[in-house]
Amino acid sequence: MKNKPDKIKSLNKYKLWIIMSAVVLVVFAGSLVIIKNPDWFHLAGKALKINKSGNETFAPQFTVKSINYPNKILSLKKYRGHVILVNFFATWCPPCRAEMPRIEKFYKAHKSEGFRVIGLSVNNSGAEAVLNFLKHFDGGRITYPIAMANYGIEQAYGRISEIPQSFIIDKQGSIVEHFTGELPPGFLGYYFKKYNK
């Protein structure tokens, strides 16, 4: 019969085996997430880097599928040479809902002049719920492209914890303005004119 110290050693070995197995499982699951969502690996943990001028920040790149234009791929690279608004929102957020018609109106009026919008939903409910919201949005029809944000994009853009958040990206691909909260009247007009040169 084993004495108490031997039992304790066996128990400790068993606990160590369970802990090591759990660690291996977590690493394996994390690898699957990265393989399935390569953007997560590419963007996660990257902070916004200030350019040498000290006033501009290079916009972290991303590629996402539009949910209101099924075959459309959205990327900053594709829109290079345009002034871009990247707008993080959620369907349950009152200030987000309030600013969407204003963004839509400005987008329709200035799309032909090179203004682009990428709306990024942070909803946990998924793309189908966001698409349903867009179809029944009481503020009117939204025609600018909308996609789902993922963890990597949120982290890359400063760990989006408050919404709405809006980023103006200039023609060279730098973030030149950042605003948290509902966009005030005149915001888009002022900055589009400033950077659309």
Task: Write up what this structure looks like.
With 197 residues, this protein is α/β, with parallel strands linked by helices. The protein folds into two domains: 33 residues; 148 residues, Glutaredoxin. Helices cover 41% and strands 19% of the residues. It has six helices and eight strands. It has a six-stranded mixed β-sheet, with helices on one face. It has a two-stranded antiparallel ribbon with strand order 2-3. β4, α3 and β5 form a beta-alpha-beta unit. The chain is globular and about 80 Å long. The chain starts with a helix and ends with a helix.
For CATH, the homologous superfamily of the largest domain is named as Glutaredoxin
Order of helices and strands: HHEEEEHEHEHEEH
Write down how many β-strands occur, each being a DSSP E stretch of 2 or more residues.
8
Q: What number is the mean pLDDT?
A: 82
Q: Major sheet, described briefly?
A: 6 strands, mixed
- List segments where confidence is low: pLDDT < 50 over at least 5 consecutive residues: 26-54
Classify the secondary structure makeup into a structural class: alpha/beta
Helix count?
6
Structural domains: how many: 2
- The percent range for strand residues is 15-25%
Gap between N and C termini: 86 Å
Proper CATH architecture of the largest domain: 3-Layer(aba) Sandwich
CA gyration radius, whole angstroms: 22 Å
* CATH fold node name of the largest domain: Glutaredoxin
- Strands side by side in the biggest sheet: 1-8-7-4-5-6
| Helicity range | 40-55%
Overall body shape? globular
